[in-house]
Amino acid sequence: MRKYIPQTWQDMKRLALIVSFSIATFFLVLGASPTSAQTSQSESVGLTGTISAPPPTQGATITIPSSGQSFTDVPIPVRGLCPTGLLVKLFKNNVFAGSVQCTNGTFELSIDLFTGTNELIARVYDDLDQPGPDSNTVNVEFVDPRKGAGTRVSVTSNFAKRGANPGQTLTWPIIISGGSGPYAISVDWGDGKSPDLLSQPFPGTLDVKHVYDAAGVYNIVIKVSDSNGAAAFLQVVGIANGPLSQTNADGSPLNSEDNGVAFVASGKTTIVWWPATITVPFIISTFWLGKRYMLRVMKKRIERGEHPFSDI
User: Fold this and answer.
1) CATH number for the domain that contains residue 123
2) Is 121 helix (H, G, I), strand (E, B) or coil?
3) How many CB atoms lie within 10 A of CB 179?
4) What local confidence, expressed as pLDDT, does residue 11 receive?
């Protein structure tokens, strides 16, 4: 007896219905997969999309230094209070001076100063780079001990936080201005490795690069010295994406607020395969049952003396 091959419009409609149901079931199972919405323990998962959220409503407070203080040496420490988990950016005379992640409700970083009066303001940012309110304003003075040395060297960046996957190159553009070349650049990437030493003959933009071995949040300290012996400093936040270890780069334990995962948009995506291992056999079995159903219907019609395609 020949195998039955559906040839009627009614047969095709039935098979199309079965196929549509099977495909819809496949995508429903895939979409409901919890693995596609969370980070696995073995590797990072890149998610695409924009989640709207209100900007921070609580700002930072600078507690050290105090307004009216005068300094003759840089860098100086800046400390204060902040909402945990947010990025704190510090500005001097509206110029970006450094950044640090708020931990346990406090922040601390080192910055350099312009000659003369410096107006310091701290501003918090969420993961969507939305700013919160400005902090209190602190006015401090820097007196350059070098008489008649001209404009001091300065270093800044258009980025307060950047990230890359472990094992991939993190590139950070910095901007050097003022002072006298050539410039010596030292970059401590915060992961315990020896600082990178570079040179730059003229002011301008320079890309510094590094590869992190492990996921984590790192404080990067950049020092630029000019030929006159003056130095400028910039502290920023580097992110190596993925599940964090149980200790920070310096060996200290993770804070209780940490969720164990640090992410910056990296473009890495993990394809979840396990739903297919369930749904593919289901689709095959559905086709087999559909074929058995059609053969059973035809057999009953023949036994009743009816035409097998009488519903055309």
Assistant:
1) 2.60.40.10
2) strand
3) 23
4) 56
